[in-house]
Amino acid sequence: MNLKSLFQDFNPAKFLIYICLLVFMPLLALRLDETISITYWLVFSPLWLWKAMVMFGALFAGLVWWRHPEYRVEGEGYVDMKAIVICLALNSLLFVFEIMVCDQLQNDAQQSGRTHNWLVVFMPLFLTAPVSIAACVWGFKHDRGLELEAMCSINILQFIFIALRLEELITWNWAAVFIPVWILTCLMCLIVLYYIIWSILILRAPDLMAEQRRAHLKAAVGALALVVPLLTFEVLLVHRLDQNNDLPYVAVFCPLYITLIVLIPTSFGQRSGNHWWFGIRKDFCTFILDICPFLREYGNITIEFGGIDPQSDEEDSERDFFGLTKIAIIEQPPRIVMPIISIETPD
User: Fold this and answer.
1) For residue 273, what pLDDT is reported?
2) Tell me, what's the pLDDT at 176?
3) pLDDT at 278
4) What does DSSP assign to residue 267?
5) Which of 98, 103, 88, 102 is nearest to 124 (CA)?
6) Is the dihedral of CA 269, 272, 273, 278 positive or negative?
């Protein structure tokens, strides 16, 4: 595996989101358990960092777009800028929602009374649904991956149920409130079951290469490692909210930590992020290598996983020998051959 090829498909935006969530979730769990007594404004600081990076990245991209019109025709410049505008609009709505939730939780912790109705707090999250649906249609048309927009558009019914339950307009238990999540999780479990069955069939197929079998097995294991901890977290959270157990929130959130840790490697090996973020107009790996030229030497290092197969070494040496032989034959200068008997020579 070449380090340069690995980081060339690195998506820094997804990596930042997963890291921020991985820091935010333990802080939230510790604050809900009252293990720490910091304000909710500090608990939500990783999310503020995420939104600040998105806003500054879009701001710098807009400045470069405005000051250099000649850059707009490079590649898919217009498509990239539209994607940035959509992402900025969605993250702005999420930012307003997070501020209102943080203010509501802080007021409840200080027992100073609620300042907002929960339906009003969730209103920016409700507005993300039409924006996310339009973004998903646009992304499908222009071959753009929009994972956050897809999650917001799918879970809109779940957001409505949670807002109504927090406002006590409905008195269902939390297991009934999370019905949309159960439906989505069941679909994910079916996909995981499909991956597992398909990988078993691939492993038993004798006419496939070992790399193909390994790839299908990794996909099945990865899907299983994502869905099982997520389902465990949802079950534990529902039982905790319905007061069927007295587990601390730190223990309830533990399976979610596993899911986030498994998601972090997915930032590598996929299509890279938008090239117009911060106006860099190139791949993130290329941008870093241009800033730090000394990293190019380490970026070209190849890492071999597993032992050395002597048979493969013999095949490689044999291939190199025949390759050198062919090159030597091709590189020989052509020789002029004269006939022994010429037509002009008399008998």
Assistant:
1) 65
2) 92
3) 74
4) G
5) 98
6) positive
Q: Which residues of the chain have pLDDT under 50?
A: 1-3, 302-334, 337, 340-343, 345-347
Chain centroid, CA 171 distance in Å? 36
Residue bearing tokens 């008195």: 171
Can you give the pLDDT at residue 141? 81
pLDDT of residue 1: 45
CB 257 within 8 A of CB 30: no
Q: Dig out the tokens for 296 from the structure.
A: 């190019």
Question: Within 13 Å and on the Cβ side, how many CA atoms surround 91?
Answer: 22
HEC assignment per residue over 218-264? HHHHHHHHHHHHHHHHHHHHHHHHCCCCCCCHHHHHHHHHHHHHHHH
Tokens of 294: 């000394």
Amino acid at 153: S
d(CA 6, CA 274): 17
Length of the chain: 347
Burial of residue 247 (number of CB atoms within 10 Å: 0-12, 13-18, 19+)? middle
- How far lies 24's CA from each of 29, 49, 167, 233, in Å? 9, 11, 25, 16
Q: What is the DSSP letter of 341?
A: S
SS3 269: coil
pLDDT at 212: 72
